[in-house]
Specification:
The complex is a heterodimer of chains A (242) and B (338).
Chain A lengths: L6 E10 L2 E11 L4 E6 L5 H8 L7 E6 L2 E3 L4 H6 L2 E4 L11 H5 L14 H14 L16 H14 L4 E5 L7 H16 L3 E6 L2 H4 L5 E6 L2 E7 L5 H9 L1
Parallel strand pairs in A: 3-8, 3-9, 6-7, 7-8
Antiparallel strand pairs in A: 1-2, 1-4, 4-5, 9-10
Chain B lengths: L1 H11 L2 H31 L8 H26 L7 H18 L3 H26 L3 H20 L3 E3 L2 H4 L1 H8 L1 E2 L2 E2 H19 L1 H11 L1 H6 L4 H27 L1 E3 L6 H11 L11 H20 L7 H25 L1
Antiparallel strand pairs in B: 1-4, 2-3
Classes of the chains: A alpha/beta (242), B mainly alpha (338).
């Protein structure tokens, strides 16, 4: 028997008033697969993944995780289903330290809810080293990190908490070329750990090297669902803009 | 972009490490130096150097907690990203309830427990309205500030009620106005509450949620923190602290008057901001708030003891608050550039 896909979405609809942000979207994501969702601005990419992340509830449609039907009513629901989302600007708190950010919402505690700071600091440094991020101290404020380092920290956090699916929302949008390259390395690393990745971007070139499969969205619909070996940058570009 | 890259390079070379250590306490050091400066200044300007006499210090450290207990709550709430303009009204409303319960025949300690509960409820009302309807807490608490003040005026018909607890229940009177080793007990309560809140904020899971909620609400929510609950708890803590401070003041003054605490609404915010708490949430410390209270109270009593006409007090205070915040910002800017 075949293993059910990690994520299966069937007939997802989301409308805001009269605007159909997501219009009958169905797709699957397999374990360890990197799926690039591409499309122009306003194509419904972000709305679609926000449904998976527990930010929006779909007006219609069903979501299955490992073959089991689920309701994702809040971001914490998504997290307990091992879905981690790394938002462009919303993943980290700039005014807080790296360690506090990594364990935000899932703080290790000793007695009566008091933080186990030693564990927080040690684990943070371990996580960052694993990601080859050269951040010297867990006490640094995240605001001092570069855009790439921030993405790395957020992705490291997802890995540490044993995510099965990591959603990256425009992870390269605000980054320099070199840092964007670094993010692609992070994605490779997730793949090596057999963690599935959904990578949303309007810049096809940023996702093309790492993705196994592409979903092209246009006006709320998934207009193309294709494996990399069956397509090319030119064909995808055409699907996006046509 | 350029700037952030150079910062991250500095990280790798470990330079920021040293700079950061300086930054952590920069704000507090600024406020502390201002406090010390004022202390010295008022020593010389006060009539017969009385500012530093045991008598006047006793007075100062007796009244500091009445503002300070409220301010550390307001600071916690502001770190969480919300305001409370109603603290003066809430604290005096709670005090009024306490006095009425006492007159009704309740033991004042029991009354205190009930009053703390009332404070928590009034705080929860502020929080629930703000969170449920998504309106700025500035507006919510502006409204409740007037509502609870109005309620007191109705109940007391604008008058005052005496509270002779020192005769009937000396134990309670000492509990709130006594001395321990020559130090006013109010100040000791203030220290205990301050240390407890500082531990909560810096070493407890809840504190992490407070900083996260104030620093980036969306990130906190995405990480599974219940930001609404965090905010409501902060509002409730403020209410509880207001209740304690209000009842404490009433015990000291031995009477309730219906305009009690009117100054507190804005003084609390002034002291919090002077203490280096960010108006935008996400940053601030309890020690800073503590020092902010110290500084403002020094100004108030220093001017009185220097025989500056009381009409001048507000002008000086207003200018002072603006100056300190400017200093904070300038120091912050310089530290970023270095």
């Amino acid at each position: 028997m075949r293993e059910p896909p990690l994520v299966e979405a069937r007939g997802i609809y989301k409308w805001f008033g009269k605007i159909h942000a997501v219009d009958d979207a169905s797709f699957t994501v397999r374990r360890g697969e990197v799926v690039g969702i591409v499309g122009d601005n306003g194509a419904g990419k972000s709305t679609l993944i926000r449904i998976l992340a527990g930010y929006h509830r779909p007006n219609k449609g069903e979501i299955f995780i490992e073959g089991r039907k689920v309701k994702i009513g809040s971001p914490s629901d998504a997290r307990s289903l091992k879905i981690e989302t790394v938002y462009q600007d919303q993943a980290l708190v700039d005014l807080m330290s790296v360690a506090r950010n990594i364990f935000m919402g899932r703080e290790p505690v000793k007695r009566a809810g008091f933080l186990d700071k030693k564990k927080m600091n040690n684990e943070s440094m371990k996580i960052l080293r694993d990601m080859e991020l050269s951040i010297k101290s867990p006490d640094y404020d995240v605001g001092f990190l570069s855009g790439g380092e921030k993405q790395g920290t957020a992705i490291a956090r997802a890995m540490y908490f044993k995510a099965k699916l990591v959603i990256l929302d425009e992870p390269t949008a605000a980054l320099s070329v070199k840092e964007a390259q670094k993010v692609l390395e992070f994605v490779e690393r997730l793949k090596k750990e057999n963690i599935a990745v959904i990578f949303i971007t309007h810049n096809l070139y940023h996702v093309y090297p790492v993705a196994d499969r592409f979903l092209v969205m246009r006006r709320g619909k998934i207009v193309k669902d294709v494996r990399k070996k069956d397509t090319s940058v030119e064909k995808l570009t055409e699907a996006i803009i046509s | 972009m350029n700037h952030s890259r150079s910062v991250s390079q500095a990280f790798r070379h470990g330079r920021i490490n040293i700079a950061l250590r300086k930054v952590v306490s920069t704000r507090e050091i600024v406020i502390l130096s201002i406090a010390i400066g004022l202390f010295v200044l008022f020593y010389f300007t006060s009539f017969r150097n009385r500012f530093v006499s045991p008598e006047s210090l006793t007075i100062i450290f007796t009244v500091i907690p009445e503002l300070g207990i409220v301010v550390i709550g307001v600071a916690l709430l502001m770190i969480c990203g919300e305001f409370d303009l109603s603290v003066g009204s809430v604290s005096s409303f709670c005090a009024l309830i306490g006095v009425e319960l006492y007159i009704f025949g309740l033991d004042p300690f029991l009354a205190l427990v009930i009053v703390i509960g009332v404070g928590a409820v009034l705080g929860a009302i502020n929080g629930l309205i703000t969170v449920m309807f998504g309106i700025p807490s500035f507006i919510t608490t502006l409204g409740t500030m007037m509502v609870w003040r109005g309620a007191q005026l109705i109940i007391t018909a604008g008058g005052s009620i005496s509270f002779h607890v020192q005769e009937t229940h000396p134990a309670f009177y000492d509990f709130f106005t006594g001395k321990v080793g020559g130090i006013p007990i109010q100040f000791i309560w203030f220290l205990i509450i301050g240390v407890a809140l500082a531990l909560l904020l810096n070493h407890h899971r809840f504190g992490n949620h407070v900083y996260a909620t104030g620093g980036n609400k969306e990130a906190a929510r995405a990480m599974g923190i219940n930001v609404n609950r965090t905010k409501i708890i902060c509002f409730m803590l403020v209410g509880v602290l207001c209740a304690v401070a209000g009842f404490m003041q009433t015990a000291r003054v031995r009477s309730f008057y219906s305009t009690q605490g009117e100054e507190l609404n804005l003084m609390a915010i002034a002291a919090t901001v002077v203490g280096g708490t960010s108006l935008f949430g996400g940053s601030g410390t309890i020690i800073g708030a503590f020092l902010g209270v110290l500084v403002l109270t020094f100004v108030e009593y220093g001017l009185i003891m220097s025989r500056v006409p009381s009409f001048w007090f507000k002008i000086v205070l207003g200018v002072f608050v603006i100056l300190v915040v400017i200093i904070n910002i300038v120091v912050g800017r310089r530290r970023k550039r270095s």
